[in-house]
Design brief:
Shape of chain B: globular
Largest interface: A-B, 19 and 28 residues
Order of helices and strands of chain A: HHEHEHHEHEHHHH
Oligomer: heterodimer
Radius of gyration of chain A: 31 Å
Number of helices of chain B: 9
Number of helices of chain A: 10
Radius of gyration of chain B: 18 Å
Distance between the termini of chain A: 19 Å
Number of strands of chain A: 4
Helix content of chain A: over 70%
Strand content of chain A: 5-15%
Order of helices and strands of chain B: HHEEEHEEHEHHHEHEHEE
Structural class of chain A: alpha+beta
Helix content of chain B: 25-40%
Distance between the termini of chain B: 28 Å
Largest sheet of chain B: 6 strands, mixed
Number of strands of chain B: 10
Amino acid sequence: MQLTYVFSELGNGLRRNVSMTIAVIVTIFVSLTLVGMGLLLNAQATKAEQYWGSKLQITVFLCNENSTTANCVNGEATDDQKATIEKTLDSNNEVASWRLQSKQEAYDKWREAYVADDDTESRVYESIRPSDMQESYWVQLKDPEKFLGIKSAVQGLPGVNTVRDLREVLKPIYFWMNVMKWGAIGIAAFLVVAAILQVGNTIRLAAFARRREIGIMRLVGASSLYIQLPFLMESLVAALIGVGLASGALLVFMGVVIYGTLRPTSNIVAWVDWGDGLWAVGLIALLGLALTLIPTLVMTRKYLKV
Amino acid sequence: MSVGCRCARTWGYVHVSGMLPVSPNPAATTPVIRFENVTKSYAGQSRAALDDVTVEVEKGEFVFLVGASGSGKSTFLRLVLREARPTHGKVYVAGKEINRLATWKVPGLRRQIGTVFQDFRLLPNKTVTENVAFALQVIGKPRSHINKVVPETLELVGLEGKGGRMPDELSGGEQQRVAIARAFVNRPMILIADEPTGNLDPNTSVGIMKLLDRINRTGTTVMMATHDAGIVDQMRKRVIELSSGHIVRDQSRGVYGYQH
């Protein structure tokens, strides 16, 4: 096949429609970047789930002398109360294992975590004794998602001060991560619609500008592919530039924000890595090609019917 | 089709040919265009554009298609080009039934048909040579072939030395010659001309008709739709007359207004 015509038409078409092509490129760039961000947030949420999920457990704090909740009216939890709690833990099928943390252990852990910054703080800390700490049961769950049964079973027992579930602490973080993810995907969806319509309009204008040539090509028996090829190439150029810009933006984000800032300074969670970034880039590349080539094929079919 | 039959100047050409089912020379009588009870109606129109038309055109024939506007001439040509499909009946072009032809084979069919229009349809930003070469480029012919046949064809249509001109530097007759060169450059089996002299003065038209006759003599079947009575009367070729979608006359060596 002689492709001179295709390439000269490609050049002409891009020159003729330069403003439309730029509009398509920008729309594709922005929408794909947002989709990529959504994908990264999704990967981050999964990573966080895996990281925290393995550590998720329920902590049952027992009453001590200073406890003020309704279950603790009798002060320090008795051995009988502890036995009831242990029986409840043993019989609940959500529980994988549990262990009792003594007051001394709790005190040691606390000393480790809290380092006094100045004299006042260290004097306050000095006044705290192991007997001020609470005994607690650290309960490992079979399925980190299933904790409500054991939580309610233990919560009302005498001698139980509070039941803490790490998930409650993480809930707002999950919530905002989800909001950001769906926000990015939602905005991206609107932009994707805009991109598809823009590609369609570009094809319509280009087909109109080329209608004489197209009419003659059909008449002399040029194949549909040959007629469509300049249009496909134009879309492909726009798609590749758009995908390139969006990939670049994502990789810069990975390099500067994730690897440059978040990873060195914060290890509360496992952060997304280059693998996740490349996976997102691959997906947006596919999406970008589909976004431009499918409307082009549909529209050229419609406007250039043999 | 035997020449003897054609000379008879009979009415009902089709019926006469139908009475000769066994041909002495089958190869010579293979029709390049055959309509079998073809009806074509367009959506939303009560009257059919073509109504139960049966006709054959043989290889190497020169046929005028005449009739008033709206008689069905354009529909007839569109069916041959497979720009439209018949509602009923069968249309064979170059041995293929066009309504059973897969879409991807349509370009192959059209490569065997050259088409010329009243309004020339040249590309204004290309030279004469480029306009003619375009028809070969877009069907993927090699450059060496194009460089050889385009000047030959321009010479055939009487445009030697004018290959470098732009279409708007040419007269109407010359522009139509370029269009004919473009239609003929791939040596089609059939040349369809839809009112090719409609925009031209009578003298120029004579030149174009001579050219079409010359092309016909190379063995190409020529089918020309026209309103130009003078040309039809002069040429004395086969005339198919359509009226309201029916063939009302099919006559060898006919004249334009025989019936009226």
